[in-house]
Amino acid sequence: MPSQREIAKDWQCAHSYVAKCVKNGCPTDSFESARAWRKLHASKRATTSPKQLAKLVLQEKNDDSPDAREYRKEFLKDRPEGTRLPSDTPLEDALLNAQQAAAEAWRLLSESMTANQDDLIGVRLSVHNKALEALFRAESAYREELERRRILIPLAEAMETARRGYQVILQRLKALPQNVAPRCNPTDPNRAMTVLESECTAILADAQKVYLSWSDE
Q1: Taking each helix axis from N to C terminus, what angle separates 15-23 and 4-11, rounded to the nearest 10 degrees?
Q2: Cβ(8)–Cβ(15) below 8 Å
Q3: What is the mean pLDDT of residues 94-98?
């Protein structure tokens, strides 16, 4: 029984592509079975949906298999020069799309002005201005989101940090009477411990009330 890497070598493609095919039902009992499965599924008509192509390209952007290269080729077909593959960061993609739209709008406007196409200059100037406005909005949103990510802490991380801090406080409060009483009253440490324990217990009780009231809101 060949391994997935051996099948990838037989297919002359990336191991990641074979692994994906195996998940989709490709047999690995022999090279012949794997080839037959690939031939059957490769014969299916490739999608031409822009959304589906973008999804496939995103899933296989690091795959160098023939099918993945075909998806990338189809996705980039008839697109402006410099168009990049989609990423897993929609915010960056939105900014890039706005940049490309502004660049294309300027190219068309420049062509009209060079060719003295007076009937197109006004229309394309309006399109160019709107593209610039969209670009400025995208850049602003991008900067704000980056700033937000630097300032805000994920809820799970904040809760875990708070839990660790509370644990330290609780441990110190519980140990405080015994550790500090002899220094507070060397001649009668038991009396000092009683007072400290009472105060620590009251602090914890008040804190618990605050958290209970917050959880009820």
Answers
A1: 110
A2: yes
A3: 81
